[in-house]
Structures are given as C-alpha cells and as structure tokens.
Design brief:
Elements: H1 2-14, H2 27-31, E1 57-61, H3 62-68, H4 73-77, E2 83-85, E3 97-99, E4 110-114, E5 117-118, E6 138-144, E7 159-165, E8 172-182, E9 187-197, E10 200-212, E11 219-232, E12 237-250, H5 259-264, E13 276-293, E14 296-313, E15 322-325, E16 339-341, H6 345-350, E17 353-375, E18 378-400, H7 408-412, E19 425-448, E20 451-470, E21 482-501, E22 504-515, E23 538-549, E24 555-567, E25 570-574, E26 577-580, E27 584-596, H8 597-601, E28 606-621, E29 653-662, E30 668-677, E31 680-681, E32 698-699, E33 702-711, E34 717-724, E35 732-734, E36 740-741, E37 746-754
Parallel strand pairs: 4-7
Antiparallel strand pairs: 1-6, 2-3, 4-5, 6-7, 8-9, 8-37, 9-10, 10-11, 11-12, 12-13, 13-14, 14-17, 15-16, 17-18, 18-19, 19-20, 20-21, 21-22, 22-23, 23-24, 24-27, 25-26, 27-28, 28-29, 29-30, 30-33, 31-32, 33-34, 34-37, 35-36
Length: about 750
C-alpha cells in the first residue's frame, strides 16, 4: 500500500524514538495553558488538562485505589459508570469487561493497555484478556470512552482502559512491602524497591498470590516479577525500559454447571483438581522520549510479548460425563479403548481430557510526534503517529483417554498423530495465524477562547493469514484450509469542549468505532475437509454528549449521554461459534459524582457519598438473524433472534454507591459500598426458560456489599481490612459454558509498609 510506505518514510525521517511518564506541565505552561492543550505521552492516555478532553473519562489515582483497597482489578472497575465486569475467577486475571452494553466476554471489545502497550493475548488475532497487572503495582487506572480513541487501536468501539504502573523513583531509595492474608486460603505478598536520582533509576517489584477459587477443588496461584529502569540522558532525552514475567498455575474448570448441578451445589467442580490453566507471559517494553524543544516532543515505543497459555478440561459441556476415559486399567495405547464415565472426583483421577496449548508472540514499534503550533489563528496541538505491529499465533489441541494426558508434556508426544490411528490420544487441532497491522493517526486540538475542537483520523491496515494445519484430528486437504483476510479502515472522529468556567465543561464527540474480524474456530462439519466460518470486522458510529463540573461546593458531577450505532455486530451464536448479527444500537445515560460533607459543613473530618449509575435504556438488535446447525437445514431457535431483542449480557441498570469516612490527618478512613447489576439475557433469542445445560435462561439481578478500613499509625505504616460480598450473597454471573456463581464472602487483613 503506497500510503503505508509514505507514512513510514515520513516517521523514519523524523527519527524513531518514544516516552514514559506523563509530561509534567511546567510553570510557564501552567501560566499559559493555551500552550499545553493535550500533552499526552505514550504511557498515558489522559492529558493533565481534563477540561479540554472531549469525552467521558475516569482517572483513578493511587490514593483512590488505596482508599478502596479493591481485592482485584474487578472491584476497582465496577465502581466506574458504564462498565460491566463479570468475575469468573477470584483474582480477575481473566478479565471480562464490557462497556456500554457490549458483551464482556474476555474483554474483546474493550482496548486494554499497560503503560500504553496492548495487553491482549494478541490484539488483532485473538483479543482475549487472560492477564491483568497486579493492582498493587498500579499508579493510575485510566478509562476513556469518547472520540479520543482515534489515537489508539485496534479496538475503538466500547472504550479504553490503561493501567499505568509505578514510576521509577527520582530521589533516593523508596520501597513498599505488603502482606495480606484472608479467608478461603488467600495470601498476597508484594514487595517493591527502587533507587533513583535526577539521572534516572531502577525499580524492582515482585508479587505472589494464592488462594482458593470461587468453586470447590480450585486453587489459584499467580506471580509476577518486573524490572523497570529509567535513564535521563540529558534535558532532551529519556529512556525507560521494563521487563516483566508473569506466571499462573491454577486449577480452573472452564465448563460451568447444569441447572441440576447448580441447584445441588452451585460451587461444585468435580474435575477441578485436574482441570487447569497454566500461563507464562514475558514482556519487554522500551520507551524513548525526545523533547526537541518546549513545543515539540518525539516519543517512540517498542514492545515485545511472548505469551504461552494452556488449559486442560475433562468435561466438554455442563452436565455431561467425562468423555475421555480408558476401558482397561492398563494405560498402554490400546486401540479404541475409550469410554465415558460420570463426572466425579474419583473418576477425574483416572481419565484423560483435552489440552489446548496456545502460543502468542507479538511485537510493535510506534513513533509519535506531538507539537504546538499556530494554524488559522488558533493555538493548536497536533499528534501524529504510526504503528507497525506483527503477530504469530499457534493454536493446538490434544485429546487423550488415560490419566497420563493430564500432563501437557505427555500430550505433546502425540503431535501429528491422527484420530484414525486408534491410539489413546491424538493431535486434534493446529491452527497458525499471522497478522501484520499498520496504523496511522493524526489528531489536532484547536483552541479558541473557551472552545477546543479536536478532529482526528486513524487508518487501520490489517492483513491476517489463517492456516488450518490440523482440524478434527487430521490434516485437511481442501483449498479453504488457508485463507487471507485484508482490511483497510479509515476511522474519523471529532470532539469539542466548551469551558463554561474553570470548574465546568460541556463536551461532545462522534467517532467511527472498529474491531477486527473475530477469530473463529468453528467448522461446518466434523471432518477435516469441512469449510471454515469467519466473521467480518465490526464497525460502529459512537456519539457522546456530556457535562462535568465541580462548580457547586462539595459536589463533583460527571454525566454522559451516549449512543453506539453498530454495523455487523458479532455475537456468540453457540458455544465456540461467532456470527455477524447485522445492525444494533446501544444508548444510555451515565452519571457519577461525589459529595464531601467536610467542604459543605467545614468539618475537620470528612464524610462522603460517592456513586455512579448507568441506565442502558436501549440495547437491541435491529435485524433478523437465523442461525442454523452444521447441516444448514435446522434453525437453532435459542441462537436466532429478531429485531428488537435485547443484546446478551447488557444489563439495563448498574449502580454503585459508597459511604465513606476520613479523619483530617488521614489516620483512619473507612468505606462501605454496594454494587447493583440488574437482570440480563444471555442469548440473542432472549430466552427466559432455563435449559437443562444451564446455558440458556436469564441472569437475575444482584446486589453485593463491600467494606474497607485503613488505619495509619505512622506515615509509613498502614493496617487494613477488606471484605467482599460481606453478606455472602449467592448470585449468578455467567451462563457462557454453563452456570457460574460469583465469589462467596471474602475477608482479608493486611499490613503495608512504605519507605
């Protein structure tokens, strides 16, 4: 593509480099804010001057995070308007985040980043979230939902969340040690130490968490070690480097429960002791910030991620038996020696199952130029950038019917064995996906009096090649086994703000949303030469109109009206199968605010009310869709839908409310909160009668209460207690692969020491 080579040549000519920390506004800029309209560096997505941001935003700083003491990322995000978080695991490592009525499954339509770097298994080829950074290591959580998304991608429909990690110290030695113990076998040990000066520094952090999962026989264990360094070469150049290694070795049953199983014991997992999820993620992130002068900054980043993950399960569907079990006690390769046994803890020990190892490798380079300038008589700031991104994905599946297959290393010894070989195991699947993506963007903020107008444009140029090397236990021979999809999408956006005064801003925006073609494994028939189904990219037009203010004494208020007009929305029709469902619309109102009684009554202590509410009054399909089975003859009624049906996993009402107390010196603060989510449909057919498998029906509404108390006897020491679901509410969170209950009552106590 000619535009690709021209843009790359332009950026290369400027030089290839990039940033780290949000640039602090100098005293000169503070006195002349028209010179610092939108200064954003790579690792931040929200500029320091919030008044000029044309969209709904939230920036949780470290103090607010510590005041909440969220047990995981989930608790921090569910207190933000418009966000629906489904918790399937205790630590919320496998995030399920939906914004403004979008399905939260694996956060596929919410762009997740860490220090400005994409976080998915593969941002284009498999946008699934199986990792989130330790919350103890975060300095900010930034959320952006409006037209500012044109600077980022590839997901620009629902919104963006950026996790900003702790910066390298710049003055002496600093550190932090946190030890937390709790019910359900929970323990959390976190340590951080660093040293630095005006020339730079180094920061090392380590996290280790373990505990019981939500369901029985589940044990979770995660750890992360990270190194971060910064070198301030001179007043113009800063280099930051970060390396992190994350590991998980957990027992998780991905298959949920049937209606009968849930009624008997909603937390049971008979195969949980052998089901598992293992993962290792290695990340390298380099950032260079080149301050050419006071008005021009060239920032560049390079990132590389290796992520190996594998899951093992023994049950394919809720309520089913263990399918892969031996017929004889001898574990040799006896031809055809396979049977199904009831799903019990004892049977799980002697049976095999299904391993799904997947390997993800992606890297990218992104230079970005930011400069202040005068155009058409207006003080302006422009941001121009380009990103080159590559992905290599390998998806495997092994199946076997004796207990040795509970070892991934043993399962791999059957690589390239066909199902027809009549052995105790075989290589079921091997899919290779290669993605090359080029992104180009430009954005300019025009400042004229109280107005700031910010148009922007993004181009996504994507080529993805999928090669089905093995399917259904053999090598396919049909021509469809390898195909290439190419997409070039031009994504415009424009936003505007009007500063009524220093404390109040009205904003509005519209932008074109985009999500690449959803990866799809589904095959029309159970033979290796079947045809393969693929989805088209999703597109949307997103509108926002909002108001934020601190004008009234003691009150802060943010409110936003939004509309998302979808073209070719993708929905999960049946388990593992995704289809384009045509047009849909989501519209709603978000309100968030806080009332501080200390400012109202001039007291030394503060009692505050903090809350948010989301009313998703419209979330429906605009067209008819009939989903047929593999034979193409029979319509699957539970998967099909009509115009006017409500979107799956799109609760109409969500609310959070917190009552808090703080002493004048900050020695003690306490907070009790509640989170409410109204009922949801789980399929496009809006099925209300539960199926025996538990995969159909509604998810009832629920209200969950939490409690946090912090006590600081000294400036360095904090003692705290944390309670989640303190009333021990039994509630349902998902029916994707059967019924899954939410977390039971959880209490913990911790000690935090900073130096």
């Amino acid at each position: 593509m000619q535009l690709s080579s021209i843009s790359l040549a332009l950026i290369t000519a400027l030089s290839i480099q990039l940033p780290t920390q949000a640039e602090t506004i100098t005293t000169e800029q503070e006195n002349n804010k028209e010179q610092a309209i939108e200064r954003i560096t790579i690792n931040h997505i929200i500029s320091p001057n919030h008044n000029n941001i044309a969209g709904a935003i939230v920036a949780l700083n470290k103090e607010e995070i510590e005041r909440q003491r969220p047990f995981s990322i989930k608790e921090a995000l569910e207190n933000i308007a418009g966000i629906n978080v489904v918790g399937e695991d205790v630590f919320s490592t496998h995030l399920n985040i939906g914004m403004r009525g979008l399905n939260p499954r694996r956060s596929a339509r919410t762009l997740l980043m860490e220090d400005g770097m994409p976080l998915y298994l593969a941002p284009y080829g498999d946008p699934s979230a199986h990792y989130s950074p330790p919350i103890e290591n975060l300095e900010y959580i930034e959320v952006v939902k409006g037209s500012g998304q044109v600077l980022y991608g590839p997901q620009t429909i629902g919104g963006m969340i950026n996790f900003v990690t702790t910066p390298v110290p710049t003055s002496g030695v600093t550190g932090n040690v946190n030890i937390e113990l709790g019910t359900n076998g929970f323990q959390n040990i976190y340590a951080r130490a660093g040293v630095g000066s005006e020339k730079g520094g180094i920061l090392i952090s380590a996290t280790d968490k373990s505990g019981d999962g939500i369901r029985e026989n589940h044990q979770l264990d995660i750890s992360e070690l990270s190194f971060k360094g910064q070198w301030n070469i001179n007043n113009s150049h800063t280099i930051t480097a970060k390396y992190a290694q994350f590991k998980e070795d957990s027992n998780i049953s991905e298959t949920g429960l049937s209606e009968a199983e849930y009624a008997t014991n909603p937390f049971q997992a008979p195969t949980g002791k052998v089901d598992g999820f293992i993962q290792q993620r290695d990340t390298l992130h380099l950032i260079h910030d080149y301050k050419i002068n006071n008005d021009v900054v060239l920032s560049s980043q390079f990132y590389h991620v290796d992520n190996d993950r594998a899951s093992f399960r023994q049950i394919n569907g809720p309520g089913e038996a263990i399918e892969y079990c031996p017929t004889v006690d001898d574990l040799s390769d006896v031809p055809g020696a396979r049977r199904a046994l009831p799903a019990t803890e004892d049977n799980s020990q002697i049976c095999g199952g299904r391993w799904r190892p997947r390997y993800y490798n992606y890297w990218g380079i992104e230079p970005r130029l930011t400069f202040n300038h005068q155009w058409l008589g207006s003080d302006s700031e422009a941001i121009i950038g380009v990103r080159y991104h590559r992905e290599d994905i390998q998806r495997h599946q092994f199946r076997g019917y004796d207990s040795r297959f509970q070892s991934l290393d043993f399962a791999k010894t059957y690589t390239d064995f066909d199902q027809d070989d009549n052995r105790a195991g075989w290589h079921q699947e091997h899919i290779q996906i290669d993605v090359t993506a080029r992104s180009y963007y430009i954005k300019n903020a025009f400042k004229a009096g109280a107005w700031t107008i910010t148009p922007g444009l993004r181009l996504e140029d994507i080529t993805a090649t999928t090669d089905y090397i093995r399917t259904e236990g053999a090598a396919p021979t049909n021509p469809e086994k390898r195909y290439t999809q190419s997409h070039s999408e031009l994504l415009p956006g424009i936003g505007a703000t009007y500063e009524i005064n220093n404390n109040s801003t009205v904003f509005a925006g519209v932008h074109q949303g985009f999500s690449p073609a959803r990866p799809n494994r589904d095959i029309e028939d159970e033979n290796p030469d079947a045809s393969y189904l693929a989805t088209k990219p999703e597109q949307s037009t997103n509108y926002e109109f909002g108001f934020r203010s601190t004008e009234i004494t003691a009150i802060s208020l943010d409110t936003t009206l939004f509309l998302t007009d979808f073209d070719e929305i993708v929905v999960q029709a049946t388990s593992g199968r995704y289809v384009n469902a045509g047009e849909s619309r989501q519209a709603g109102l978000e309100v968030a605010g806080q009332l501080n009684f200390a400012d109202l009554y001039k007291t030394l202590y503060n009692v505050y009310l903090q809350g948010n509410y989301t009313n998703l009054f419209l979330a429906e399909f605009n067209s008819l869709k009939e989903i047929r089975d593999d034979s193409s003859e029979n319509i699957i009624k539970s998967a099909s839908f009509e115009a006017g049906n409500r979107l799956p996993y799109a609760p109409k009402h969500m609310a959070s409310l917190a009552l808090g107390f703080e002493t004048a010196q900050g020695t003690v603060d306490a907070r009790i909160g509640l989170n409410y989510v109204s009922e949801q449909f789980v399929d496009g057919a809006n099925t209300t009668i539960p199926s025996e498998s538990g995969e159909e029906g509604i998810i009832p509404s629920h209200t969950i209460f939490s409690l946090t108390v912090n006590y600081r006897p000294t400036e360095q020491l904090t003692l705290y207690i944390n309670g989640q679901n303190i009333t021990d509410e039994l509630y349902l969170v998902s029916r994707v692969d059967g019924m899954v209950a939410g977390r039971e009552q959880q209490f913990s106590a911790g000690v935090n020491y900073q130096f």
